[in-house]
């Protein structure tokens, strides 16, 4: 090849020289001055604060991608990471983590002095379970006079509602002794009480007098739950 042709060929490819110089220089710089791979440390089980400190010393970044509720772990505990431990990455790359948070607890609503119906509807609307109990009270019937847990306390189970009911009226059981059986039976029938009658004297009649009684005179009884009356002749 003649010299003139060589010069012409050189000029034809001379535009490639700057690019070739750039790539060769970049390769040499990367070879001698490029950053070395970094081994990903284990972050799972540590707190977010500890994780940030550990990664900052290794020139790595951290990114929180999600929070997951866990009642047993301290808030802010790292529970997963990507890339996984012992993988190789470059400086300034990010480690993506998921951290724990405490579950959100609903607080007990204020239900005192509301009717049972109002309290029940409020709890149903909020999806809160409840149990109801009745307490003798002079407060208006079915008014909530107590609750557990107290208002604004965290809810850990069904709420206990205590509603007022009218106090059960008590009566003093009368003296039936020495009264004729027929008269006593008529008296007890008014209150739907059927007595058990024991005849000590087989010749006793309906006109015979009561010799013994149970309950004893003066006993407090409830007509909601009539007593078992025993009469002896």
Outline type: rod-shaped
Which CATH architecture of the largest domain is right?
A: 2-Layer Sandwich
What name is given to the CATH topology of the largest domain?
Trypsin Inhibitor V, Chain A
The CATH class of the largest domain, by name, is Alpha Beta
How far is it from the N-terminal to the C-terminal residue, by CA?
152 Å
Low-confidence stretches: none
> What is the β-strand count?
13
Radius of gyration: 46 Å
Number of helices: 5
Count of domains:
3
**Strand numbers in spatial order across the main sheet:** 2-5-3
The major β-sheet equals: 3 strands, mixed
Specify the oligomeric state.
single chain
Percentage of residues assigned to helices: 10-25%
Element-by-element helix/strand order:
HHEHEEEEHEEEEHEEEE
Q: Give the mean pLDDT.
A: 84
Report the structural category.
alpha/beta
Strand content: 25-35%
Describe the 3D structure.
With 233 residues, the protein is α/β, with parallel strands linked by helices. It has three domains: 38-101, Trypsin Inhibitor V, Chain A (2-Layer Sandwich); 107-165, Trypsin Inhibitor V, Chain A (2-Layer Sandwich); 170-232, Trypsin Inhibitor V, Chain A (2-Layer Sandwich). Helices cover 25% and strands 26% of the residues. The protein has helices at 3-13, 17-33, 48-57, 116-126, 181-189; strands at residues 38-39, 61-69, 78-82, 88-89, 94-101, 130-136, 144-148, 159-165, 170-172, 196-198, 212-214, 220-222, 230-232. The strands form five sheets. A three-stranded mixed beta sheet has the order 2-5-3, covered by helices on one side. A three-stranded mixed beta sheet has the order 6-8-7, covered by helices on one side. The relative contact order is 0.10.
């Amino acid at each position: 090849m003649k010299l003139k042709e060589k010069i012409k060929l050189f000029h034809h490819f001379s535009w490639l020289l700057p690019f070739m110089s750039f790539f060769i220089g970049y390769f040499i710089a990367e070879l001698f001055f490029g950053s070395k791979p970094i081994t990903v440390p284990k972050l799972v089980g540590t707190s977010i604060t500890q994780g940030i400190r550990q990664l900052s010393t290794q020139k790595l970044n951290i990114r929180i991608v999600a929070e997951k509720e866990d009642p047993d772990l301290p808030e802010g505990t790292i529970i997963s990471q990507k890339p996984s431990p012992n993988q190789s990455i470059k400086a300034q790359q990010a480690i993506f983590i998921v951290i724990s948070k405490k579950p959100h607890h609903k607080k007990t609503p204020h239900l005192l002095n509301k009717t049972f119906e109002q309290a029940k509807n409020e709890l149903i609307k909020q999806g809160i379970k409840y149990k109801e109990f009745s307490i003798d009270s002079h407060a208006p019937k079915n008014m909530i006079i107590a609750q557990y847990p107290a208002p604004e306390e965290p809810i850990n189970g069904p709420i206990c509602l205590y509603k007022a009911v009218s106090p059960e009226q008590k009566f003093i059981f009368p003296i039936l002794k020495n009264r004729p059986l027929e008269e006593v039976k008529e008296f007890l029938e008014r209150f739907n009480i059927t007595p058990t009658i024991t005849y000590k004297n087989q010749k006793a009649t309906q006109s015979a007098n009561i010799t013994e009684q149970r309950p004893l005179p003066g006993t407090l009884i409830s007509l909601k739950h009539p007593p078992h009356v025993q009469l002896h002749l």
